[in-house]
Specification:
35% helix, globular, alpha/beta, 18% strand, 12 strands, 6-stranded mixed β-sheet, binds adenosine monophosphate
Protein backbone atom coordinates (compact mmCIF):
# COMPACT_ATOMS: atom_id res chain seq x y z
CA UNK A 1 0.00 0.00 0.00
CA UNK A 2 2.34 2.63 -1.32
CA UNK A 3 2.41 6.11 0.21
CA UNK A 4 -0.87 5.88 2.14
CA UNK A 5 -2.13 8.78 4.19
CA UNK A 6 -3.47 6.72 7.09
CA UNK A 7 -4.95 9.70 8.92
CA UNK A 8 -7.06 10.46 5.84
CA UNK A 9 -8.02 6.80 5.43
CA UNK A 10 -9.01 6.55 9.10
CA UNK A 11 -11.26 9.61 8.73
CA UNK A 12 -12.86 8.14 5.61
CA UNK A 13 -13.52 4.81 7.32
CA UNK A 14 -15.16 6.67 10.22
CA UNK A 15 -17.31 8.58 7.72
CA UNK A 16 -18.42 5.33 6.04
CA UNK A 17 -19.31 3.80 9.40
CA UNK A 18 -21.31 6.88 10.35
CA UNK A 19 -23.35 6.68 7.17
CA UNK A 20 -23.95 2.97 7.74
CA UNK A 21 -25.26 3.78 11.22
CA UNK A 22 -27.43 6.62 9.86
CA UNK A 23 -29.44 4.44 7.48
CA UNK A 24 -31.75 1.49 8.25
CA UNK A 25 -31.72 0.37 4.64
CA UNK A 26 -28.56 -0.22 2.64
CA UNK A 27 -28.02 -1.43 -0.95
CA UNK A 28 -24.57 -2.70 -1.94
CA UNK A 29 -23.65 -2.61 -5.63
CA UNK A 30 -21.06 -4.35 -7.83
CA UNK A 31 -20.07 -3.64 -11.42
CA UNK A 32 -21.48 -5.12 -14.61
CA UNK A 33 -19.80 -8.32 -15.85
CA UNK A 34 -18.69 -9.03 -12.29
CA UNK A 35 -15.34 -10.67 -11.61
CA UNK A 36 -13.90 -12.12 -8.41
CA UNK A 37 -13.10 -8.69 -6.99
CA UNK A 38 -16.52 -7.24 -7.80
CA UNK A 39 -18.32 -10.19 -6.18
CA UNK A 40 -15.79 -10.59 -3.39
CA UNK A 41 -15.80 -7.00 -2.21
CA UNK A 42 -19.58 -6.74 -2.53
CA UNK A 43 -20.35 -9.97 -0.67
CA UNK A 44 -17.59 -9.34 1.86
CA UNK A 45 -19.20 -6.02 2.70
CA UNK A 46 -22.86 -7.11 2.49
CA UNK A 47 -22.34 -10.10 4.81
CA UNK A 48 -20.39 -7.91 7.26
CA UNK A 49 -23.24 -5.38 7.30
CA UNK A 50 -25.89 -8.06 7.78
CA UNK A 51 -24.01 -9.74 10.63
CA UNK A 52 -23.02 -6.58 12.47
CA UNK A 53 -26.23 -4.61 11.95
CA UNK A 54 -28.90 -7.33 12.09
CA UNK A 55 -31.76 -4.86 12.42
CA UNK A 56 -30.88 -3.12 9.15
CA UNK A 57 -32.35 -4.13 5.81
CA UNK A 58 -29.27 -4.86 3.69
CA UNK A 59 -29.49 -5.94 0.07
CA UNK A 60 -26.91 -6.74 -2.60
CA UNK A 61 -27.79 -6.45 -6.26
CA UNK A 62 -26.24 -6.98 -9.68
CA UNK A 63 -26.01 -9.39 -12.55
CA UNK A 64 -24.89 -12.94 -11.95
CA UNK A 65 -22.18 -15.25 -13.25
CA UNK A 66 -23.40 -18.77 -13.93
CA UNK A 67 -20.02 -20.37 -13.31
CA UNK A 68 -19.25 -18.79 -9.92
CA UNK A 69 -22.82 -18.55 -8.56
CA UNK A 70 -23.54 -20.50 -6.46
CA UNK A 71 -20.13 -22.28 -6.44
CA UNK A 72 -18.45 -19.36 -4.67
CA UNK A 73 -21.04 -16.59 -4.39
CA UNK A 74 -24.77 -16.68 -3.69
CA UNK A 75 -27.23 -16.26 -6.51
CA UNK A 76 -28.64 -12.74 -6.94
CA UNK A 77 -30.99 -11.71 -4.16
CA UNK A 78 -34.69 -11.64 -4.78
CA UNK A 79 -35.33 -7.94 -4.23
CA UNK A 80 -38.95 -6.81 -4.57
CA UNK A 81 -39.43 -4.05 -7.15
CA UNK A 82 -40.85 -1.69 -4.55
CA UNK A 83 -37.84 -2.01 -2.17
CA UNK A 84 -36.33 1.15 -3.59
CA UNK A 85 -39.54 3.15 -3.14
CA UNK A 86 -40.16 2.09 0.45
CA UNK A 87 -38.05 4.75 2.13
CA UNK A 88 -34.61 6.33 2.33
CA UNK A 89 -31.59 4.13 1.71
CA UNK A 90 -27.84 4.29 1.54
CA UNK A 91 -26.11 3.04 -1.63
CA UNK A 92 -22.58 1.69 -1.38
CA UNK A 93 -20.76 0.76 -4.57
CA UNK A 94 -17.62 -1.34 -4.45
CA UNK A 95 -15.15 -1.74 -7.32
CA UNK A 96 -17.21 0.43 -9.71
CA UNK A 97 -15.29 3.20 -11.47
CA UNK A 98 -18.21 4.93 -13.15
CA UNK A 99 -21.99 5.11 -12.86
CA UNK A 100 -22.51 3.49 -16.27
CA UNK A 101 -20.91 0.29 -14.92
CA UNK A 102 -23.08 -0.01 -11.80
CA UNK A 103 -25.09 -3.23 -12.02
CA UNK A 104 -28.61 -3.41 -10.61
CA UNK A 105 -31.47 -1.01 -9.96
CA UNK A 106 -31.99 1.97 -7.68
CA UNK A 107 -28.60 3.65 -7.47
CA UNK A 108 -29.69 7.03 -8.85
CA UNK A 109 -32.65 7.29 -6.45
CA UNK A 110 -30.61 6.48 -3.34
CA UNK A 111 -30.42 9.13 -0.63
CA UNK A 112 -26.68 9.00 -0.01
CA UNK A 113 -23.97 7.42 -2.14
CA UNK A 114 -20.68 5.94 -0.97
CA UNK A 115 -18.11 4.94 -3.57
CA UNK A 116 -15.40 2.51 -2.41
CA UNK A 117 -13.01 1.77 -5.25
CA UNK A 118 -9.49 1.17 -6.48
CA UNK A 119 -9.77 2.47 -10.06
CA UNK A 120 -8.49 5.93 -11.01
CA UNK A 121 -11.12 8.33 -9.69
CA UNK A 122 -12.10 9.87 -13.02
CA UNK A 123 -15.76 9.95 -11.97
CA UNK A 124 -16.11 10.76 -8.25
CA UNK A 125 -19.86 10.08 -8.32
CA UNK A 126 -20.29 9.41 -4.58
CA UNK A 127 -21.32 11.85 -1.88
CA UNK A 128 -18.41 10.16 -0.15
CA UNK A 129 -15.60 8.78 -2.33
CA UNK A 130 -13.07 6.44 -0.74
CA UNK A 131 -10.84 5.68 -3.69
CA UNK A 132 -7.27 4.37 -3.69
CA UNK A 133 -6.06 3.50 -7.20
CA UNK A 134 -2.79 2.01 -5.96
CA UNK A 135 -4.49 -0.77 -4.04
CA UNK A 136 -4.44 -3.95 -6.10
CA UNK A 137 -7.99 -5.12 -5.26
CA UNK A 138 -11.06 -3.31 -4.00
CA UNK A 139 -11.52 -6.27 -1.64
CA UNK A 140 -8.24 -5.28 0.03
CA UNK A 141 -9.71 -1.85 0.82
CA UNK A 142 -12.97 -3.36 2.11
CA UNK A 143 -11.00 -5.87 4.17
CA UNK A 144 -8.96 -3.06 5.69
CA UNK A 145 -12.16 -1.19 6.54
CA UNK A 146 -13.55 -4.24 8.33
CA UNK A 147 -10.30 -5.18 10.05
CA UNK A 148 -9.81 -1.58 11.23
CA UNK A 149 -13.37 -1.24 12.55
CA UNK A 150 -13.89 -1.14 16.34
CA UNK A 151 -13.50 -4.54 17.98
CA UNK A 152 -17.22 -5.02 18.62
CA UNK A 153 -17.69 -5.59 14.88
CA UNK A 154 -16.94 -9.14 13.90
CA UNK A 155 -15.55 -10.71 10.77
CA UNK A 156 -16.48 -14.33 10.13
CA UNK A 157 -14.74 -16.90 7.92
CA UNK A 158 -17.46 -16.39 5.31
CA UNK A 159 -16.79 -12.65 4.98
CA UNK A 160 -13.04 -13.25 4.98
CA UNK A 161 -13.42 -15.87 2.24
CA UNK A 162 -15.26 -13.46 -0.04
CA UNK A 163 -12.69 -10.74 0.50
CA UNK A 164 -9.74 -13.10 0.11
CA UNK A 165 -11.28 -14.33 -3.16
CA UNK A 166 -11.47 -10.75 -4.43
CA UNK A 167 -7.87 -10.08 -3.46
CA UNK A 168 -6.56 -13.25 -5.10
CA UNK A 169 -8.64 -12.52 -8.20
CA UNK A 170 -7.54 -8.95 -8.89
CA UNK A 171 -3.92 -9.47 -7.87
CA UNK A 172 -3.62 -12.52 -10.15
CA UNK A 173 -2.70 -14.66 -7.13
CA UNK A 174 -0.49 -11.90 -5.69
CA UNK A 175 1.44 -11.53 -8.93
CA UNK A 176 0.38 -8.23 -10.50
CA UNK A 177 1.80 -4.75 -9.85
CA UNK A 178 0.39 -3.00 -6.74
CA UNK A 179 0.62 -6.25 -4.77
CA UNK A 180 2.74 -5.24 -1.78
CA UNK A 181 3.50 -5.97 1.86
CA UNK A 182 0.15 -4.58 3.01
CA UNK A 183 -1.69 -6.80 0.51
CA UNK A 184 -0.03 -9.88 1.96
CA UNK A 185 -0.54 -8.77 5.58
CA UNK A 186 -4.25 -8.16 4.97
CA UNK A 187 -4.55 -11.48 3.09
CA UNK A 188 -2.85 -13.20 6.04
CA UNK A 189 -5.33 -11.64 8.46
CA UNK A 190 -8.20 -12.94 6.32
CA UNK A 191 -6.75 -16.46 6.21
CA UNK A 192 -6.44 -16.22 9.98
CA UNK A 193 -10.23 -15.84 10.20
CA UNK A 194 -10.56 -19.43 8.96
CA UNK A 195 -10.62 -19.31 5.16
CA UNK A 196 -10.24 -22.72 3.50
CA UNK A 197 -7.92 -21.36 0.80
CA UNK A 198 -7.39 -24.67 -1.02
CA UNK A 199 -11.12 -25.35 -1.25
CA UNK A 200 -11.54 -21.81 -2.56
CA UNK A 201 -8.77 -22.14 -5.17
CA UNK A 202 -10.37 -25.40 -6.41
CA UNK A 203 -13.55 -23.47 -7.13
CA UNK A 204 -11.89 -20.32 -8.50
CA UNK A 205 -9.57 -22.13 -10.87
CA UNK A 206 -11.60 -25.23 -11.83
CA UNK A 207 -11.09 -25.90 -15.56
CA UNK A 208 -12.98 -28.10 -17.98
CA UNK A 209 -11.73 -29.88 -21.10
CA UNK A 210 -13.59 -27.31 -23.17
CA UNK A 211 -11.67 -24.54 -21.34
CA UNK A 212 -8.48 -26.29 -22.46
CA UNK A 213 -9.76 -26.47 -26.06
CA UNK A 214 -10.41 -22.74 -25.95
CA UNK A 215 -6.93 -22.10 -24.57
CA UNK A 216 -5.45 -24.26 -27.34
CA UNK A 217 -7.34 -22.20 -29.91
CA UNK A 218 -6.07 -18.92 -28.45
CA UNK A 219 -2.47 -20.19 -28.30
CA UNK A 220 -2.69 -21.21 -31.95
CA UNK A 221 -4.34 -18.00 -33.11
CA UNK A 222 -2.53 -15.28 -31.19
CA UNK A 223 -0.78 -12.75 -33.41
CA UNK A 224 2.27 -10.66 -32.62
CA UNK A 225 2.95 -7.07 -33.64
CA UNK A 226 6.46 -5.81 -34.47
CA UNK A 227 6.78 -4.16 -31.03
CA UNK A 228 5.70 -7.15 -28.96
CA UNK A 229 1.94 -6.73 -28.61
CA UNK A 230 0.31 -10.17 -28.49
CA UNK A 231 -3.36 -10.16 -29.48
CA UNK A 232 -6.14 -12.56 -30.34
CA UNK A 233 -9.62 -12.18 -31.79
CA UNK A 234 -12.59 -14.37 -30.91
CA UNK A 235 -15.49 -13.89 -33.29
CA UNK A 236 -19.03 -14.83 -32.35
CA UNK A 237 -18.62 -18.03 -34.38
CA UNK A 238 -15.43 -18.86 -32.42
CA UNK A 239 -17.21 -18.24 -29.12
CA UNK A 240 -20.09 -20.51 -30.06
CA UNK A 241 -17.74 -23.29 -31.19
CA UNK A 242 -15.66 -23.02 -28.03
CA UNK A 243 -18.62 -22.73 -25.67
CA UNK A 244 -17.64 -19.29 -24.38
CA UNK A 245 -19.68 -16.17 -23.69
CA UNK A 246 -18.52 -12.77 -24.93
CA UNK A 247 -17.54 -11.92 -21.35
CA UNK A 248 -15.36 -15.04 -21.10
CA UNK A 249 -13.35 -14.25 -24.23
CA UNK A 250 -10.86 -12.24 -22.17
CA UNK A 251 -10.00 -15.19 -19.91
CA UNK A 252 -6.86 -15.92 -21.92
CA UNK A 253 -5.49 -12.39 -22.07
CA UNK A 254 -2.65 -13.14 -19.66
CA UNK A 255 -1.35 -16.21 -21.53
CA UNK A 256 1.51 -14.36 -23.20
CA UNK A 257 1.95 -11.65 -20.56
CA UNK A 258 5.24 -12.92 -19.18
CA UNK A 259 6.70 -14.19 -22.43
CA UNK A 260 10.05 -12.65 -23.26
CA UNK A 261 9.71 -9.97 -25.95
CA UNK A 262 5.99 -9.44 -25.27
CA UNK A 263 5.27 -5.94 -24.00
CA UNK A 264 1.45 -5.94 -23.96
CA UNK A 265 -1.37 -8.42 -24.45
CA UNK A 266 -4.82 -7.86 -25.89
CA UNK A 267 -7.99 -9.92 -26.20
CA UNK A 268 -10.67 -8.90 -28.67
CA UNK A 269 -14.05 -10.59 -28.31
CA UNK A 270 -17.08 -10.06 -30.49
CA UNK A 271 -20.20 -9.00 -28.61
CA UNK A 272 -23.02 -9.55 -31.06
CA UNK A 273 -25.69 -8.37 -28.63
CA UNK A 274 -24.05 -4.96 -28.34
CA UNK A 275 -22.75 -4.85 -31.92
CA UNK A 276 -19.15 -4.27 -30.86
CA UNK A 277 -15.92 -6.00 -29.86
CA UNK A 278 -14.85 -6.05 -26.21
CA UNK A 279 -11.16 -5.41 -25.70
CA UNK A 280 -9.03 -6.26 -22.68
CA UNK A 281 -5.51 -4.86 -22.39
CA UNK A 282 -2.78 -6.06 -20.04
CA UNK A 283 0.91 -5.33 -19.61
CA UNK A 284 3.70 -5.48 -17.08
CA UNK A 285 5.75 -2.88 -18.91
CA UNK A 286 3.42 -0.32 -20.49
CA UNK A 287 0.65 1.86 -19.11
CA UNK A 288 -2.27 0.64 -21.20
CA UNK A 289 -5.05 2.72 -19.63
CA UNK A 290 -4.42 5.70 -21.91
CA UNK A 291 -4.89 3.54 -24.99
CA UNK A 292 -8.03 2.07 -23.41
CA UNK A 293 -9.39 5.58 -22.81
CA UNK A 294 -8.89 6.39 -26.49
CA UNK A 295 -11.08 3.41 -27.41
CA UNK A 296 -14.10 4.09 -25.16
CA UNK A 297 -12.66 2.41 -22.10
CA UNK A 298 -10.50 2.86 -19.06
CA UNK A 299 -9.22 0.99 -16.04
CA UNK A 300 -5.93 0.52 -14.26
CA UNK A 301 -2.48 1.43 -15.54
CA UNK A 302 -1.63 -2.20 -16.35
CA UNK A 303 -5.10 -3.76 -16.79
CA UNK A 304 -7.78 -1.96 -18.75
CA UNK A 305 -10.88 -2.58 -20.83
CA UNK A 306 -12.10 -0.89 -24.02
CA UNK A 307 -14.53 -1.31 -26.92
CA UNK A 308 -14.04 -1.15 -30.67
CA UNK A 309 -16.90 -0.90 -33.12
CA UNK A 310 -15.34 -3.09 -35.77
CA UNK A 311 -12.14 -4.97 -36.49
CA UNK A 312 -11.13 -2.10 -38.78
CA UNK A 313 -10.12 -0.24 -35.62
CA UNK A 314 -7.89 -3.03 -34.35
CA UNK A 315 -4.72 -2.16 -36.32
CA UNK A 316 -4.91 1.37 -34.89
CA UNK A 317 -5.27 0.12 -31.37
CA UNK A 318 -2.32 -2.25 -31.79
CA UNK A 319 -0.28 0.60 -33.30
CA UNK A 320 -1.13 2.81 -30.32
CA UNK A 321 0.02 0.10 -27.96
CA UNK A 322 3.19 -0.45 -29.95
CA UNK A 323 3.91 3.26 -29.72
CA UNK A 324 3.27 3.41 -25.96
CA UNK A 325 6.68 3.66 -24.29
CA UNK A 326 7.89 1.08 -21.81
CA UNK A 327 7.58 2.38 -18.26
CA UNK A 328 11.32 1.90 -17.88
CA UNK A 329 11.95 4.19 -20.89
CA UNK A 330 9.24 6.81 -20.34
CA UNK A 331 10.46 10.05 -18.82
P1 LIG B 1 -11.38 -6.11 -18.22
O1 LIG B 1 -10.38 -6.21 -19.28
O2 LIG B 1 -12.77 -5.98 -18.71
O3 LIG B 1 -11.20 -7.21 -17.20
O4 LIG B 1 -11.08 -4.75 -17.44
C1 LIG B 1 -9.86 -4.53 -16.81
C2 LIG B 1 -10.02 -3.43 -15.79
O5 LIG B 1 -10.41 -2.23 -16.43
C3 LIG B 1 -11.09 -3.73 -14.76
O6 LIG B 1 -10.66 -3.28 -13.50
C4 LIG B 1 -12.28 -2.95 -15.23
O7 LIG B 1 -13.08 -2.57 -14.14
C5 LIG B 1 -11.64 -1.75 -15.91
N1 LIG B 1 -12.46 -1.30 -17.03
C6 LIG B 1 -12.89 -2.04 -18.06
N2 LIG B 1 -13.64 -1.29 -18.91
C7 LIG B 1 -13.68 -0.05 -18.38
C8 LIG B 1 -14.30 1.18 -18.77
N3 LIG B 1 -15.03 1.29 -19.88
N4 LIG B 1 -14.11 2.25 -17.97
C9 LIG B 1 -13.40 2.18 -16.84
N5 LIG B 1 -12.79 1.03 -16.42
C10 LIG B 1 -12.92 -0.06 -17.16
Amino acid sequence: MAAMNFAKLHKEFKAILKKIKDYDRIAVYRHTQPDFDAFGSQMGLATWLKANFPSKDVIYVGETNDKWCPAIFPKPMDVADDWFARGPYLAITVDVANVARISGPGFDQSDYKVKIDHHPNVEPYGDLNVVYPNIVACAELVALFELAAPRRYKMTAEMARYLYCGMVGDSGRFLYPDTDDATLRIAASLIGKGVDIYGLYDKMYARSMSDMEAEKFVLNNTKFSPKGTAYYVLTDADLKRLGLTSVEGKLFVNLFRNVSGITATVSVTQDIANNCFRVSLRSNQKIVSKVAAKYRGGGHDFASGATINSLDELPWLIKDLDETPLVSEAK
